[in-house]
Amino acid sequence: MDNYESISYNKNLLTGEEIQEKKIKKDTGVKGKVTVSLFDAKTGKKTQEAYTENLIPELFFRDAFITSFIGGIMGCGQSRTTNAYNWFNYIYLTDSDKPESSNEQRVMGNVIGYAHRNTAYSGSDPLQGSINKAETRFEVTDSKVRLNFVFDFPTNACNGTIESVYFCEAIPDDKDCVYSADQIYGRENGDNDYTIYNTTNPRRFYAAYIAFSYARCVNFTSPTKGYMVLDATNTTITQSTYLQFPDSLKGHIIYIPFDVNTNDILLWDRTVKLVLCQEKVQVKSGKIIRTSL
After folding, report:
1. Nearest Cα residue to 227 out of 285, 169, 181, 188
2. pLDDT per residue as tens digits for the range 212-270
3. DSSP secondary structure letters along 239-264
4. CA 252, 258, 260, 263: dihedral to nearest 10 degrees?
5. I need a labelling partner for 231 at 20 to 30 A (CA). Which of 10, 52, 103, 117 fits?
6. What is the C-alpha separation between 107 and 111, in angstroms, rounded?
């Protein structure tokens, strides 16, 4: 895959000052261009403009390849499943100055503003803006497909220093629920079937269902392996019929690696208990006694 040179800029239209940055991008055939413009609330004139080509993480291309090519064209599985329609639900503007990475999956930094790409918003939320449907365009020609999204933020919203722009699947409360990777879980009942069924292997099916449904966070480090954080004080997790949860781990928040090609999914022998500090306050003879637990 070839690389090409992209120029990002930040222009102050009042002073004429312009800052440029040269970036090297992979030529994936898909380009996203982002322009952030600031306007004076009283005059309506544009005061600042920043432009960059955004980076589409490699995860999306891997998922598209595995789902469409392996799952559909090569016939590994009876159907094709994809989360592609969810990836770009919300636009996020944050204060993260972390260098961009092709392996990044999460929205980094504190959220300065966000907006849904389809649903207009007109409330007083200090973060939320709105899709401008009048100026948003979807164009399909013989040579390209172009989506031009325009988002507006009123003066009461999106106030702060903006360093990064992301697209994400979920609202702010759920944005850290990491994408759960590709739907290949190991061969189950045939040479061309890579799906877990609750009928043919309920132990693995429900282990995956409980683990991924109730995990506090999930991070895939490969298409089949990664790690998650589980709350082992939750009896729905620890008392599941199919998830063989060790007694020694119950009552703890745990950091546990997983491999979806193993029968139990979770790798119990490599689990780490996380220490949570709580403060217990006691009152005795008019004195307050604090004890860390």
Report:
1. 181
2. 888 888 888 876 788 999 999 999 889 888 788 899 999 999 999 998 777 778 999 99
3. T-SSS---GGGTTSEEEEEEETTSSS
4. -70
5. 103
6. 9
CA–CA gap between residue 177 and residue 235 (Å, rounded)? 21
| Domain spans, the chain | 3-174, 202-274
Distance CA 38, CA 66 (A): 41
- Residues found in the chain: 293
Distance of CA 244 to the CA centre of its chain: 29
Q: Provide the token pair at 147.
A: 């989506």
- Contact in structure between 241 and 261 (CB atoms under 8 Å): no
Output the six-digit token pair for 18: 């312009």
Which tokens go with 229? 């954080």
Residue whose C-alpha is closest to residue 188's, from 208, 170, 171: 208
- pLDDT, position 88: 80
- Global pTM reads 0.55
How far, in Å, CA of 167 to CA of 187, rounded? Answer: 33
211 φ/ψ angles, rounded to the nearest 5 degrees: -60, -50
Q: Are 21 and 51 in contact (CB under 8 A)?
A: no
CA dihedral (9, 13, 18, 19) positive or negative? negative
What is the enclosing helix (H) or strand (E) of 167?
A: strand 164-168
pLDDT per residue over 17-67, tens digit each?
Answer: 999 988 888 777 777 788 888 888 888 899 999 988 887 777 667 766 666
For residues 269 and 262, is the Cβ–Cβ distance under 8 A?
no
Q: Which residues contact 240 (CB under 8 A, 6 or more apart)?
A: 206, 207, 210
